[in-house]
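All the exercises in this workshop are built on plain-text protein records. A record pairs a protein's sequence with a compact description of its fold. The structure tokens are whole numbers drawn from a learned vocabulary of backbone shapes. Once this layout is familiar, the rest of the handout is easier to follow. An example says more than a description, so a record of this kind follows.
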Amino acid sequence: MSAQAQWHESDGVLAVGYVETRSVARGVEVADVMAKTSDVRIETAMPTCPGKFLVMATGLVAAVRTAVEVGVAVAGETMTDFTVIPSVHPDVIPALGGMVDVETIEALGVIETFTMASAVRAADEAVKTADVRLIEVRLGRGLAGKAFVMLTGHVAAVRAAVEAGVKALADEALILGTTVIPSPHPQILDKIL
């Protein structure tokens, strides 16, 4: 982390922002301008399937908003989605890094989205709404640019969380599918987790 973009919990609320483009070249440019324009930490700047590019930045809310606004402007017509989540739930960031260890899988919920940024919004809303644990937020790689959220908890909590994630994206028509499996078979868990 650069000296400029150091964030400490005592500084204020941590936000996460995303800009997703359908151009790798423009995505690299977006990442650069976001880092140069605002006091944020670029957490992810990566190509994803099919030829998209995702930039994720964290920092204080105002800095992340500024970085995303500039990133969206630079992305121009290549921008496919963007988001800023102020006060992101602390479980979201670890789930973006891969599967999070959970002791027990009770009910399993899945929210599948058309864009990567929308999956992060759905995950944040889901975990803020109900007593669930995020297992993973998978972004774009091997998914033709789509994304999904997997979470677990008691059946009612998982249902409420999935519904909240869907509702958070209702105006954007970005949900591809959802499911809640009350007691997933161990063979299935062994293969998907």
Helices lie at 24-37, 61-75, 92-96, 116-129, 155-168, 186-192. The CA atoms of residues 110 and 150 lie 5 Å apart. Strands lie at 14-21, 41-48, 52-60, 79-85, 107-113, 133-139, 147-153, 175-181. The mean pLDDT is 87.
